[in-house]
Amino acid sequence: MATNLINLEEVTVAHGTKLLLDKVSLGVSDNDRIGVVGRNGGGKTTLLKTLVKTEEPHSGRVTHAGGLRVGVLTQDVRIDPRLTAHQAILGDTAEHTWAGDAKVREVLDGLGLHEVGLDAVVGSMSGGERRRVALAALLIGDWDLIVLDEPTNHLDVEGVAWLAAWLKNRRGAHLVVTHDRWFLDEVNETTWEVHDGTVDAYDGGYSAYVLARAERDRMASTAEQKRVQLAKKELAWLRRGPPARTSKPKFRIEAANALIADEPPPRDDIALQRFATARLGKQVYDVEDVSLRFGDRVLFDHVTWRVGPGDRIGIVGVNGAGKSTLLKMLMDQVHPDAGVVKVGQTVKVAYLSQEVAELDPMLRVLEAVEQVAKQVDLGGKPVGASSLCDRFGFTGNAQWTRVGDLSGGERRRLQLLRLLMGEPNVLLLDEPTNDLDIDTLNALEDVLDGWPGTLLVVSHDRYFLERTTSVTSSLMGDGTVQALPGGVDEYLAKRVRRTPSSPVAQDKPKGDSRAAKKELQKLERQLVNLDKREVELHAAMAEQAADHEAVLKLNEELHQVRQQKEAVEESWLELSEQV
User: Fold this and answer.
1) What is the pLDDT of residues 209-243, one digit of tens each?
2) Which residues partner with 541 through β-bridges?
3) CA distance 544 to 564
4) Is residue 155 within 8 Å of residue 132, measured between CB atoms?
5) Phi/psi of residue 109, each to 5°?
């Protein structure tokens, strides 16, 4: 029999004049696996805070089982910047203690913490690295319930797959807020939809939720049609007098899969490709025998790759392999060391980078869109700026919100809108799903379904890649671009995460010399830090590729780092023979 962990009874929470939870009653039991979905700003995070008692409701009651142990990952990670990763994750636990704990080793390896370096100071880390440290610290704990708010942010495809497998194998309850639909489907058995102050529960993960919601919407539509029809009959009766008795209409509730029985495929790839060829001609991008390196790191080694009209390509690869650099090379923002990138004469490209473009904060949303165009042709159908705004979640008065008042996710939506209003025939999208909620992702996918052009997408969101693209290419970190007929699954099967040498990854050294073993561990930590610095330098060189002097200085430091690595590795080899 299930044990109840948390109960919400008639809970109401409001922020200002906005009612986020309106007399909500629900519960969490042990071994529940719950995914939480809903629009950005709709109350998902507020629900989590209320459940774990970090936010008090205005009315109603929240009760916890006695001795309940709850672990929470928030979107706003706060760790003492003076701590090292080791201290933040493991406290003062000695290496020989945690190195023998299989659970700890699995978490550190799965989240790639050796790439960050356990001796790295939190204050020097990027936001993504700090988030991985916080997630690791949470996962190694012993909790009855884990509450995760956007846990897949800053994780690559491998990291997301590892976390999903870890949660599936874990005993205990979890509650997850995420826009990653593949992840929702993979790890959850129940879905909560937060909307309009209420929380609707559905059995199953994301796929089951979509079917159930479609059935609910169909029933609501049928009920509305029935209400309108009855109103018309009542009006006619008032005009004519009492009518003869008639039988009431009967409605058959069909199975959820019947909802999509007559639904055509989301897009006609052949028709779109013909249309794209007419708009683009035969040539889009021809990458011929291209090589590119930053310092000693080879990103592309004699790569030949062709992108044709109507191609819809998803791009995956290891961090630092050059996915964003590839898009920038197509945009002529980065130039190859050798080879050539040929661009078709009719190409009109739009590029969505990971950075949100700055706009006049005093502009209204609709004004910012109409600044590009007032009407756009999508799949042969003219769509006005206001209508497209509506499809992307800027409905009614939201179209008159000032740009300066928008959230990060709303700015991302606006950036996408402006790109589409430019009527490009080639779209290059670098992590387009960042900060977008599921409804907005659905709207974007719906627009892209009928968009007749060439589409290249770099993303860690497996669902989005599979939904919007037809083929997958991978950058494996060896200087090649490979076609993957099996998509992301084939990529994960081929990819083995490589971690720097560490006490965890190696067999324990033999011998009785404690001093030698301690020195070995010190050298290994130095290698971790040097590897991390090497990655940082490569990234900095990529960012400043246009600044020749800056690149020379960075390359000089990179050379010094590599010399230090060689010296440390030589010392390690010599010492390892003695123990």
Assistant:
1) 888 877 777 777 776 676 666 655 555 554 444 44
2) none
3) 24
4) yes
5) -70, -45
- CATH annotation of 4-207: 3.40.50.300
Q: How confident is the model at residue 572 (pLDDT cuts 50, 70, 90)?
A: low
CB 117 within 8 A of CB 144: no
Instruction: Write the single-letter amino acid at 249.
Output: P
Number of other residues whose CB lies within 10 A of the CB of residue 568: 18
Nearest CA among 294, 282, 368 for reference residue 328:
294
Cβ neighbours of 344 (radius 10 Å): 20
The radius of gyration computed from the CA coordinates of the chain, to the nearest angstrom, equals 27
- pLDDT of res. 353: 83
User: Cα dist. 82→123, 124, 138, 449 in Å?
Assistant: 6, 9, 19, 48
| Cα 570 to the center of its chain, rounded Å | 40
Tell me which DSSP letter residue 253 carries: -
Output the CA–CA distances (angstroms, integers) from residue 579 to 323, 507, 566, in the order listed.
Answer: 42, 12, 21
Q: At what angle do helices 127-139 and 102-110 cross, to 10 degrees?
A: 160
Helices then strands, each counted (H, E), the chain: 19, 20
* Cα dihedral across residues 406, 412, 418, 421: positive or negative: negative
What does the alpha-carbon distance between residue 320 and residue 303 come to, in Å, rounded to a whole number? 17
The whole-number pLDDT of residue 573 equals 58
How many residues are listed for the chain in this entry?
579
Please name which of 415, 414, 374, 416 lies closest in space to residue 394, comparing C-alpha atoms.
414
Beta carbons within 8 Å of 151's beta carbon, 6+ residues apart: 73, 135, 163, 176, 178
Q: What gap in Å lies between CA 179 and CA 434, rounded to an integer?
A: 9
Secondary structure, 3-state, 520-578: HHHHHHHHHHHHHHHHHHHHHHHHCCCCHHHHHHHHHHHHHHHHHHHHHHHHHHHHHCC
pLDDT > 70 in the chain, percent: 81
Which of 15, 423, 36, 355 shows the shortest CA–CA distance to 195? 36
Three-state DSSP string of 126-148: CHHHHHHHHHHHHHCCCCCEEEE
pLDDT > 70? residue 269: no
* DSSP line for 217-239: HHHHHHHHHHHHHHHHHHHHHHH
Distances (CA, A) of 242 to 19, 128, 234, 523, 552: 45, 70, 10, 95, 92
| The architecture CATH gives domain 269-494 | 3-Layer(aba) Sandwich (3.40)
Which one, of 417, 460, 570, 577, lies nearest residue 511 by Cα? Answer: 577
More confidently predicted of 441 and 1: 441
Q: At residue 518, does pLDDT exceed 50?
A: yes
* DSSP code string of 320-357: TSSHHHHHHHHTTSS--SEEEEEE-TT--EEEE-SSPP
